[in-house]
Amino acid sequence: MPSEKKSSVLTNDIKDETTLQNQRKEYKDCLSCRLIGVATFMGLGTYTLYHSFVHKPKLSRGYRFGLTLVGIGFMQVGVFRLLN
Length: 84
What we know:
The protein is mostly helical. The chain has one domain (16-83). It is built from three helices and no strands.
Protein backbone atom coordinates (compact mmCIF):
# COMPACT_ATOMS: atom_id res chain seq x y z
CA MET A 1 0.00 0.00 0.00
CA PRO A 2 2.62 2.62 0.86
CA SER A 3 4.37 2.17 -2.52
CA GLU A 4 1.11 2.94 -4.36
CA LYS A 5 0.68 6.08 -2.33
CA LYS A 6 4.26 7.12 -3.01
CA SER A 7 3.96 6.62 -6.76
CA SER A 8 0.71 8.58 -6.74
CA VAL A 9 2.47 11.49 -5.07
CA LEU A 10 5.29 11.33 -7.63
CA THR A 11 2.90 11.35 -10.58
CA ASN A 12 1.05 14.33 -9.09
CA ASP A 13 4.38 16.18 -8.72
CA ILE A 14 5.26 15.43 -12.33
CA LYS A 15 1.83 16.62 -13.51
CA ASP A 16 2.20 19.83 -11.50
CA GLU A 17 5.66 20.42 -12.91
CA THR A 18 4.56 19.95 -16.51
CA THR A 19 1.56 22.22 -15.94
CA LEU A 20 3.86 24.89 -14.50
CA GLN A 21 6.24 24.57 -17.46
CA ASN A 22 3.34 24.94 -19.90
CA GLN A 23 2.14 28.06 -18.09
CA ARG A 24 5.63 29.55 -18.26
CA LYS A 25 5.80 28.89 -22.01
CA GLU A 26 2.44 30.57 -22.57
CA TYR A 27 3.20 33.67 -20.48
CA LYS A 28 4.73 36.61 -22.31
CA ASP A 29 5.17 40.14 -21.05
CA CYS A 30 3.69 43.01 -22.97
CA LEU A 31 6.09 45.50 -24.52
CA SER A 32 5.31 48.26 -22.01
CA CYS A 33 6.05 45.90 -19.08
CA ARG A 34 9.41 45.00 -20.59
CA LEU A 35 10.32 48.62 -21.27
CA ILE A 36 9.42 49.64 -17.72
CA GLY A 37 11.55 46.79 -16.36
CA VAL A 38 14.46 47.71 -18.62
CA ALA A 39 14.24 51.38 -17.67
CA THR A 40 14.09 50.49 -13.97
CA PHE A 41 17.13 48.21 -13.97
CA MET A 42 19.17 50.46 -16.25
CA GLY A 43 18.30 53.42 -14.01
CA LEU A 44 19.34 51.51 -10.90
CA GLY A 45 22.58 50.46 -12.56
CA THR A 46 23.37 53.98 -13.73
CA TYR A 47 22.56 55.46 -10.32
CA THR A 48 24.77 52.92 -8.55
CA LEU A 49 27.65 53.41 -10.97
CA TYR A 50 27.35 57.17 -10.68
CA HIS A 51 27.57 57.06 -6.90
CA SER A 52 30.47 54.65 -6.97
CA PHE A 53 32.51 57.08 -9.11
CA VAL A 54 31.39 60.44 -7.70
CA HIS A 55 32.23 59.67 -4.08
CA LYS A 56 35.67 58.21 -4.82
CA PRO A 57 37.66 59.96 -2.07
CA LYS A 58 35.10 59.22 0.63
CA LEU A 59 34.62 55.50 -0.05
CA SER A 60 37.04 52.67 0.51
CA ARG A 61 38.38 50.81 -2.50
CA GLY A 62 36.47 47.59 -1.75
CA TYR A 63 33.20 49.45 -1.29
CA ARG A 64 33.63 51.25 -4.64
CA PHE A 65 34.43 47.96 -6.33
CA GLY A 66 31.31 46.38 -4.82
CA LEU A 67 29.11 49.26 -5.93
CA THR A 68 30.55 49.04 -9.43
CA LEU A 69 29.78 45.33 -9.60
CA VAL A 70 26.24 45.88 -8.34
CA GLY A 71 25.70 48.64 -10.91
CA ILE A 72 26.96 46.47 -13.74
CA GLY A 73 24.79 43.62 -12.48
CA PHE A 74 21.66 45.80 -12.54
CA MET A 75 22.47 46.87 -16.08
CA GLN A 76 22.96 43.26 -17.16
CA VAL A 77 19.59 42.34 -15.68
CA GLY A 78 18.07 45.20 -17.68
CA VAL A 79 19.58 43.90 -20.91
CA PHE A 80 18.44 40.37 -20.09
CA ARG A 81 14.95 41.68 -19.38
CA LEU A 82 14.90 43.37 -22.77
CA LEU A 83 16.10 40.34 -24.72
CA ASN A 84 14.20 37.65 -22.86
